Amino acid sequence: MLDTQPDPKSDDGYTTADGRKIGGVAMEMKNITLRFGGVVAIKDISFDIRWGEVRAIIGPNGAGKSSMLNVISGFYNPQEGEIIYKGYRRPRMRPYQVARTGIARTFQNIALFEGMSVLDNIMTGRLHHMKANLFQQALWWGKASREEQENREKVEKIIDFLEIQHIRKTPVARLPYGLKKRVELARALAAEPSILLLDEPMAGMNVEEKEDMSRFILDVNDEFGTTTVLIEHDMGVVMDLSDRVVVMDYGKKIGDGTPDEVRNNEEVIKAYLGVAHD
Amino acid sequence: MTVTPEIKLAPEESSIPALLARNARNYGMQTAYREKEFGIWQSWTWAETQGEVRAMALGFLALGMERGDYVAIIGRNRPALYWAMVAAQSVGAIPVPLYQDAVAEEMAYVLDHCGARFVVCGDQEQVDKVIEVQEKVTCIEQILYHDKRGMRKYDHSHMNWLEDVMREGRAAETRFAKELEARTKELTLDHTCVMLYTSGTTGKPKGVVLSNRNIIVTSKNSSEFDHLKPGDEILAYLPMAWVGDFIFAIGQAYWTGFCVNCPESAQTMMTDLREIGPTYYFAPPRIFENMLTTVMIRMEDASPLKRRIFHHFMDFARDVGPKLLDGKDVSLGARLKYRLGHFLVYGPLKDTLGLRRIRVAYTAGEAIGPEIFDFYRSLGINLKQLYGQTEASVFITQQPDGEVRSDTVGVPSPGVEVRIAQSGEVFYRSPGTFESYYKNAESTASTKDAEGWVATGDAGFFEEGSGHLRIIDRAKDVGKLADGRMFAPKYVENKLKFFPNILESVVFGNNRDRCVAFINIDLAAVGSWAERNNIAYSSYQELAGLKRVLDTIQEHVEQVNESVAEDEMLAGCQIHRFLVLHKELDADDGEMTRTRKVRRRIVEEKYADLIDALYGGKDSIYTETEVTYEDGRKGKLKATLEIRDTKVFGAEQKMAAE
Question: In this structure, are B86 and B227 located in the same domain?
């Protein structure tokens, strides 16, 4: 997909335990502070996201994880701090503008078009790749039909990849929860994002569905080299999936590093993983 | 050696690769394979197929595949995997297709037993299994896979992407073309065509060695029997390891030159069936049952008017449809009404089921319920039965057009001799009779005698008058009740299974004073009934234990008893007590074979406590059962099952009263 491959010239990347090459910095958050009135949701947080890595944000309820994701996706604009994306400082943007820069997301509570088929839902993910004008679209003439074919081809590859061929024509409203989540992932992938944001992709799933979803997330990263940022509650999943983890608590960053480093970090254990009371 | 009438075949018809070359020459531009991928049916002509197979065969040579090597094939039905089989044959190797849903342990046994040097996998899932198996099985040298997804990180020192192998093959054209030609040319009718492992209701699987003669002569005979021709279409969706798939999708397809269609995924089978509209179709009774259940469930939800039209015309068709199919006399009025019915009901229904273009459809493997069988026949679908087994390259008997009934399995197939032994067991001898069991001379000798007669293990008899074969049961399952009356469990089980609510049943009674039964409910049918009646349930187990469900099942059992009582010989097989099992019998737990036949002995052992309870006087029984999940982990199911007494009829009544 579009310039998501790790920059081979960059020498500040690292190699993961399973041998994947992680590239240079894709996005850097610098001293982000986000306030809602008097409430400080995020307080002076800095971290980076590198090309090709799976980056997790964890923390207890109300720690500011989702707010952080909303800052990245442009839904919230932080009062302080700056976001450096692909080497440039990102100005204030509306969410759709951010989406155009190659950032796609899924939602914690599914946000699909319930009445539309799975295929149509995923096609909406291609919106930014359609250039034909209204007139052409209406008559399905010239560029419009050509574009639809190209886009459909891309979408079909994703359908194949996520193994949802059997529900291609099924209205989303009729699907079980686990499949809806997968359709949402498909739609995000259809946008061919540089950075994929997943907000609790495994919330409310049973063990088998979680296993499937984990495999898909790893496969997406493996196959397309998509940089992935995910928020997740299930610690087992986070530790298995991610290359590096940011831990938040009360809007502050209390830990940052590989899953092992985070797991052994005193403060993190206290805040999130819990300590034995003796 | 087998004494069979010599059938003359040209050298260009003496192996599958030779037939491929012939087809590429004769039907070069006609479609040989289709597969739905990325939402579109991709197709390959016979000429293109030859090119692909050739590239693969050259690639195999480059990897060092030798004559007589065994090549395991694991995956769902895809053109590339069929080609891999033919490519392996082209270089003198022997393909061994495996059941893709087999657990690692079963797979390990087969791979080790045949000593496979090469394994061709469909995708990552199978590769993972093979890698797991490799800890114990050391013979595997190369793993090849078709779908590249998720494979990037694997150690490829002994692993290859099939596409790469083909590319390498094309590049090695000059180097290996001579060698390939020589190896393909030396194949004769006596060379091994394929080795198929029988699932086996008892013991370890056995490798059935089938020669080119077995496969090709059988394919020729059976294709001519049903007038198959180029331009016919089949859907290849049954396990590739099953002999039927090999005969239909390779044997007959290559002999006749018809087109093999592969579905997009296992779940899209019904949609794909509809899109393709095959002209030649095989399905086990289970699939026909499921289709009918789905239709009936959907009709329940239709508007009253539609429901009335449907039932009116279906009742009419049940009477007239089969007669029309058999070419019997039907009045003009009835013919016209059938036409109208076709326009309103039968046509649209067949279209929905994907059976509109069927010329010949077969079912086999298990008995099919007469109502189910008649349902399809009355729609004008030429559904027939055949009787066969792996050792016979499928065909032993089959029903000719116009002589089709639900309770027989037809007359001996062309070239097949059948005789009934004194004991009632069915024996056959045919050009399709297998060569031997691989590395198992003992079993070979006990199954096939010096004159080539093979014991089927089934008890049956030829019906007087029609000359059709009727199968009663597995010979070794037919037993006696304590008082010496005949006990044929399958006979009763089949009657039970013909109720849509009952998925599976196991009847016990050998050497006992009376019969008892385990029942498995059909989740789709019973679940839909529960939904319509506002009955809440959270699991299979709970549904299976509901009082109203048990009441319904009891009614079914009593109906069966009533009909069994009518048959004097088998009246003793009426069911006195039954229980509904808390889990579905499953191949993963070893309770069934991969082709979904109950392994009676294992069920008997595993649920000994339940059987004791059925013969004891208790009303309920607490039990714990070990189950295996799909990923191989084990768990325990706990349940308290209710035991019901049922009404029996005729002479049995006295016994029940005692």
Answer: yes
- Among A75-89, A177-191, B288-302, B383-397, the least confident range: B288-302
Please check whether residue B269 lies inside any domain of the structure: no
Radius of gyration from C-alpha coordinates of chain A: 19
pLDDT tens digits, one per residue of B431-472: 999 999 999 888 888 889 988 999 988 888 888 888 899 887
- A156, B38: Cβ pair inside 8 Å? yes
Instruction: Give yes or no: residues B227 and B338 share one domain.
Output: no
For residue B413, give the nearest of B429, B426, B402, B425 by alpha carbon: B429
Q: What is the per-residue pLDDT for B597?
A: 81
Closest CA relative to residue B473, chosen from B462, B497, B489, B484: B489
The whole-number pLDDT of residue A2 equals 42
Nearest CB among A18, A160, A208 relative to B38 is that of A160
User: What mean pLDDT is predicted for residues B271-292?
Assistant: 91
Nearest to A222 among B37, B152, B264 (CB): B152
Q: Does B152 touch chain A (CB under 8 A)?
A: yes
| Residue A118: per-residue pLDDT | 95
pLDDT tens string A18-27: 777 788 888 9
- B540, amino acid identity: Y
Whether B522 and B541 share a structural domain: yes
Cα nearest neighbour of B38 on chain A: A156
B456 and B483, same domain (yes or no): no
Which pLDDT band, with edges at 50, 70 and 90, does B43 fall under? very high
Question: Which residue among B37, B149, B264 places its CB closest to the CB of A223?
Answer: B149
b/e per residue B218-228 (b: at least 16 CB within 10 A): bbbbbbebbeb
Nearest Cα residue to B385 out of B358, B371, B367, B372:
B367
Which residue range(s) make up the domain with B607? Answer: 479-657
User: Are the C-beta atoms of B467 and B483 separated by less than 8 Å?
Assistant: no
Partner residue facing B150 (CB), from A156, A168, A219: A219
| CATH class (in words) of the domain with range A1-102+194-278 | alpha beta
Q: Is residue B266 part of a domain?
A: no
Domain residues of chain A, as ranges?
1-102+194-278, 115-192
Instruction: Mark yes or no for CB contact B150/A168 under 8 Å.
Output: no
Is B540 a residue whose pLDDT tops 80? yes
B536 near A CB under 8 A = no
Chain A CB contacts of B149 below 8 Å:
161, 219, 223
Q: How many domains does chain B have?
A: 3
Q: pLDDT at residue B4 above 70? A: no
- Determine the pLDDT at residue A1: 40
Once rounded to an integer, what is the mean pLDDT over residues B505-519? Answer: 91
- Which residues of chain A lie closer than 8 angstroms to B37, CB-CB? 160
Amino acid at B153: K
B274 is a domain residue: no
Instruction: Write out residues 613-632 of B within 8 Å (CB-CB) of A.
Output: 630-631
Share of chain A above pLDDT 90, in %: 37
Residues of B in contact with A168 (CB under 8 A): 39
CATH of the domain at B359: 3.40.50.12780
Q: Are A33 and A41 in contact (CB under 8 A)?
A: no
Q: Which of B452, B474, B496 is the last residue of a domain?
A: B474
Whether the CA torsion B176, B181, B186, B190 is positive or negative: it is: positive
pLDDT of residue B300: 83
Contact call for B150 and A19, based on CB within 8 A: no
Please tell me which of the candidates A153, A166, A215 has its beta carbon nearest to residue B38.
A153
Q: Are residues B249 and B341 in the same domain?
A: no
Spell out where chain A has E strands.
14-15, 21-22, 25-36, 39-50, 54-58, 80-85, 88-89, 103-106, 195-199, 227-231, 244-249, 252-257
Lowest mean pLDDT among A192-201, B62-71, B191-200, B630-639: B630-639
End of a domain among B420, B454, B474? Answer: B474
